Amino acid sequence: LQFTEEKLGQAEKTELDAHFENLLARADCTKNWTEKILRQTEVLLQPNPSARVEEFLYEKLDRKVPSRVTNGELLAQYMTEAANDFGAGTPYGKTLIKVGETQRRLGAAEREFIHSASINFLTPLRNFLEGDWRTISKERRILQNRRLDLDACKARLKKAKAAEAKAAVTP
């Protein structure tokens, strides 16, 4: 009732401290940007949406995500196979072997980067959203309910005093 009357402008609302309001606004801003950064980093690390969904499901089921071959590693494999077909002694075969080995190392570095970014960057962001933010939201709801209770009590007290004053004036 208090909430509805406040929304309709029929009841007074106790304002929170300006510093606290600022903290709440900063918390909301932090949450929004954290969600955006988390989503975009996931897209950067795994551009394939179906693979991201699969990884998400494995994570929620507490199972190990199967290891995927990176595009660089796949290219290295193709180059090595082509070099074997052309012959390792031919100039083209030697070049394919060298470039294939470099691509393999690049693919392995990419895999390590994805793994490291997931552990050291994405995990803390998820921990904030799933832990700290839930706590902030819960405490905010509790505070809002307590404020509504306080305002409802103030309104009842004001009505009781008005009724008391009216009864004192009327003989």
UniProtKB/TrEMBL annotation:
Classification via Pfam families: BAR
Keyword NAD among UniProt keywords: no
GO cellular component: cytoplasm; membrane
Keywords assigned by UniProt, alphabetized: Coiled coil, Cytoplasm
Compartments (UniProt record): Cytoplasm
Annotated BAR domain residues: 5-171
InterPro entries cross-referenced by the UniProt entry: AH/BAR_dom_sf, BAR_dom, Endophilin_SH3RF
Major location (coarse): cytoplasm
GO process annotations (BP): membrane organization
Family statement drawn from the similarity comment of this UniProt entry: Belongs to the endophilin family.
Protein name: SHLB2 protein
Gene name per UniProt: Sh3glb2_1
